[in-house]
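Protein modeling request. Please complete all fields; requests missing the sequence field cannot be processed.
Requester role: graduate student
Desired output: 3D structure, token encoding
Chains: 1
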Amino acid sequence: MTEASTREAPATVEAGPIPRRFTLRQRIVLRFIIAAGYFFIRMIGPTLRVSVSREEGAQETLAQRPLILCFWHAGIIPATYAFRDLGIRVMSSNSYDGEYMGRIIRKFGFVAVKGSSSRNAVRALLGLRRALQEGWAVAFSIDGPRGPRYKVKPGPVALARSSGVPLATFHVAVEKAWVLNTWDRLIIPMPFSRVLLRTGKLIPVPENAGDGAIERYQQEVQDSLDRIREFAEENVHRVGAGEFPDYKRT
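Delivered output (250 residues):
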């Protein structure tokens, strides 16, 4: 697959009003979280010292599309900054957590497709497949929205089979970060930290793959994410020593 360079990604994607299904207090808190989250990522992101490391056969650039990008939920904050303003389509749940995270990433040029692994999944997967057909990349926090942590779910593999678009794995390791006491151990980068973004080789899934093969490809994605996470975490301290190329998206 090649990059669909003829389509321009939006700089920002505005969201509508916060749904009335949330209480007044929840809507007020949501507005605060969204504003604070956006401001934090926008301020901290440019201070990070980022390098990119690719396995042989990985995507050529971060902007390459169409692709099905897979990563762990814990890295959603540094990933949001690294892949900003590329028009990437993401599955966003209808939950309270999904609402504020979806609205923050929209401000960084992502486009949310409503659904989750547990509710409205079919509708969301159809929306993501349509985006792939239009030449966009889509992304999954592949153990979200509620875990289990570091465990691949089958949705992206099924999407790769039905769309003919390969899976691309990546992991963002941060040398110095705050780690929240949440199910995913969410990583919040500290200012001026070293960051290593490691990408895994592309994983195509044949359209005629049976259910047994789907399980094997799911395991291949699991192995890839485990492998690149280990590499990134072990080598992030070497960022800036000239061993890894500087961060570029195109």
